[in-house]
Write the C-alpha cells for this entry.
Amino acid sequence: MTSVRKVGERGAKTQRRHIGPGVVLWRAARTRRGKIGLSLAGLIVAVAAIGPFVAPYSPTAFVGLPYAPPSTAALLGTDTLGRDVLSRVLEGGWVLLIMAVAATTIGVALGAMAGITAAYLRGAVDTVIMRLADVILAFPQLVFALLLVSLVGPRLWLIVLAIALSHVPQVARVSYGTAAGVCERPFIKAQELNGVRPHRIMIDEIFPNLITPIVVEFGLRLTFSIVVMAGLSFLGFGQPPPAPNWGYMISENRVGLAQNPWGVVVPAILIAVLTIGVNTFGDAVARVAMGAVGRRSEIALVGSGVGVVDGSEETTTVLVDAGGVP
Amino acid sequence: MKHLSNGGAPATAGRGVGSSLEVSDLLVTTSDGHAVVVDEVSFTVGSGQVLGLVGESGSGKTTIALALLGHVRRGLRIGGGSVRLGGRNVLGMGPSDLRRLRGLEISYVPQDPASALNPVHRVGAQVAEALSVHPGCVDDLRDRVSQVLSDVDIVPEKEMLRRYPHQLSGGQQQRIALAIAFACRPSMIVLDEPTTGLDVTIQRHVLETVRRLCHSYGAGAVYVSHDLAVVSDVATNVAVVYGGRIVELGETDRTFAAPIHPYTRGLLDSIPSPRRSEVLHGISGQPPRIGHRPTGCAFEPRCESRVDACALRTPDPVEVDGRIVRCFRANEMLTLNLRHRPQPAAAPHAGQPKLSVRDLCGFYGDHRALSNVNLEVRQQQCIAVVGESGAGKTTLAQCVAGLNRNWTGEVSLDGKHLKPDAKARDLDLLRRIQYIFQNPYLALNPRQTIGQIVSKPVQHFFHLPRADVEREVLKAMEDVSLGSSYLERYPDELSGGERQRVAIARALVARPELLICDEITSSLDVSVQAAIVEMLRRLQVEHDLSMIFITHNLALVRSIAQECIVLSEGRMVEAGRVTDVLERPSHPYTVRLIADMPTMPEGSKEYPAPVDPE
C-alpha cells in the first residue's frame, strides 16, 4: 500500500502497485498469523530435511531393548523393536512431506483444470465433469484412498495418486465457482470474437485470474494431504514396515505408550505442528487475499464515482492504491 | 423535540418551513486525518430552493451530500465545519439526535433504488416504516402513506402497496424511494443521482416529481448529479465541485450561460449538444486523487488559463457577478467567451456499402429481442443505434459480431455472408469486425499488462516477428493518445477513460474495417467522453473505419454519427440521416425520446453577453 503522501506533492504520478498472487503471498508472510504459520511449518520441514543427515543411528538399527525410556544413548528412548526413536523421527519425515506435496500439487492441478474446463465450456462437458466430481465427493477422502490402495496394494505412487484424486472434486468446485464469474467478463468475449482457441483462452485468460484462490486452496489441501497420508501410514498402508514413517510410528509404538511414550508423542506432535503451521499460513494468505478485496470495497466508497455506473473490484483497486487510505 | 409540535402542520407545508440549510467550512478527511477529501465547503440552501451539486466522479460530491446528514462512509470522518439545519448544528449531534433528525427533517434519496429498498418487504410497509420510526410525526399513518404515494404519482391501491420492490419498474422504485424521503415532510431532501440509470422518459417524470414535491412541500433540496443537463433542468442554484472543493457557486441559469471557472467551462465544452453537431472538447488530464491534491488550485494541472500563481497557492473564493468562484482570474474569465465549438469537418463521403443487415431477427433465449432490422453501413460511415434500455441495441450489436448466435436474417460484410456464430466465422472475417465493450473496467484482463493485452491480437492475426509486433502496438497506443509508458502497467492502474482507450487500441491493432462500439462512453465522465468521441472521429478517417455506435444518449449521436436508427422494443421505428431524425422525427417514439431528453438552456451554447463586473 502506498503510504499517504503529503497533500502538497504536486503531479506526482505514483506507481500504483498491482496486486498479484506473489504480492499476496509476500504480504501474507509478513502478517503475524503468516509469520507464526511459516515458522511452525518451516521448523518441521527443517527437521524432515536435515534430520536424515544428523540422525545418530540408522533408523533400522537395534540400539537397545524395546520401549527403553530415554537415556544418553537414545535421547528419546527406543521403539517397539528396540530401534532409536530419535533417529527414526529424524528419518521418517521427508518421504511423508514429499508425498504430501506431490499429492497436493497433482490434485490441485487436476482440480483446477477440471473446474476451469467445466466452467468455460459449459453444456455437456460441464455436466459430466461436475457430476463425476459429485460422485467422488460422496466418498470420504480416507475411504476413497483406502479403496484404491486395497485394490492394487500399498504402492507409494498409488497412495500419492489416490490422495491427489480425492482432492480433485473439492478443488474443481472452488475453481469452477471463481472461473464461472471470470468467463462472463467481456475480456473473454473479446478473445472469443478474435477466434482464439478455447484452450488458449482457458490457459492465458482465465487461469491467471484464479491463481490467488488456487494458492489458498493449495494450503488447505496440503494440510489434508498430510493428515490423510499419516492416517494411511497409521493403518499400515504406507511405506512398507522397516522404513521409518511418522504415521506408522504412532501405530507401531502405541502398545508401549506406558513404557516409552516418546515413540508416539513426538511423531504426533510433529504431524500436528506441521498441519497447524501450514493451515495457519494458508489462513493468512486467504485473509490477505480477501482482505485486499474487502478493503477495496470499503475504500471504494470514498470516491465511488457516481458517474461511473460500475462498482467492480478493479475500479476500487485504483482508488485504494490511489488514496493510500488505510 | 420542539419541532414535533408542528406534527399537524398543513399537508402541503413542510415541517419547520423556512428552515434553511447552512453549510460552512465543511471538512471531511480520511479517518487517520492524513488526507483531505473535502474541505472549505460552504453554501446555503433556502426552503424551496434546489441546489445542484455537480462534478465528475471522485470530485467529492457524494461525500458532501452524505455529510449533510451527519454521515460519512467508512474510512472517512468529518474533520470540522458546521452544517446547520434550522439553526441546529447537525455535525454536533449525538447518534440518537441524528436518528430523530434523519427522515424527519432531512432525508436522503440514494442513487440506486433497487438496492435502497429492502427486497423482502412490501413497498407499502417500507413507506409506512419511514413514518412509524418517527412516532407522532403524523396523525394517521395509513392516510399519510396513501397521500404521499399519490404525491409521487403512484396509485395507493392495496394491490400496489402489497408489491415487492422487484415487482416494480425502475421508475416506480425511485418514486417509492422519493415517497419514503418525503413521508415525514422534511424541510430538506438530499438526492444522490436519483435518475442515473433511468431512461430519459422515466427520468423526466422523476425530475418533475422532485420539482413538484419540493415546491408543494416548501422543502429545500440538494441534488447531486454528474449530468449538467439534468441539473440545469431541476436546480435553482448550482455548486460545481472539483477536487473536494466548490469552485463555482451561483444561480443555475447564469452559471451555465456564462461560466466563470475554467473547470465549469471545460465541463460545458464537453457536453454534446442535441441541437448542433459540434466538435467536443474534453478536459485533458485527470482529476487529483484523494490525498494527492496539488498545493495550488486543484484544477491547475489541467487548466488552459492557468497563471504562475495558480500552482503556488489555492485561490480564495471571490464574488463575481453574483457568484462565488475560486479562481485568480475570475474577473477576466467572466468577460471571456465560451470556446467556439466549430462544426466538425464534414463527414467523408460515404463509400461502398461495408456491412449490410437484412431482416435480422434476434432472440435472447426464447424472447424475441429484435424484429426485422435492416441497416447498411458504408465505408467510413458511422451509424448510431439509439433506444432505451431493453430496446435491443446490444442484441443487435452482438448478433452482428456473432456473440449471440440466435438470429435469423442476412448479415454480410463486403458482400460476404456472416455465419451467426463467431466460432464458425473464418479468422479474417473475425479480424475485420472488432467489438468494444461498454464497461472498460471488465474489458481488460486484470492479470495482464497493457502491452500483453494489446499485442495479443497482433500475434494472433498476423504472426509477426517480435519487433514488428512491438511497432504495431506502439503505433496503436499512439493512435489512442497513450504513450509507451503504459505498456508495463496493469489495467487496475488506469482510469476508466484510459482503459477504454486501451480497449480501442486492442481493436485497432487487428486493422479492423468495422468497429462496433457498445455504449462505450456510458460509464465515463463527460470530459472523458468528449475526448474519446473526438478520438474515434479522427480514427474513423485515419483508419478508414466503419462504425456502429450504440448509445442511449441522443445528444451524443449528433457528435459522432452520420446515420442513425432508432430501436423501440426490438423494432426499428426510425432510420435516416442524423439531422433528419433529430430535427424532424416522424415516429411518436422518437418524438417522445427527443422531448424527454434533458437539455441545457439554449443560451448556454451561445456567446454570453459579457457582463461588466462593476
Notes: Residues 1-14, 604-614 of chain B have pLDDT under 50 and may be disordered. Chain B touches chain A through 79 residues (CB under 8 Å).
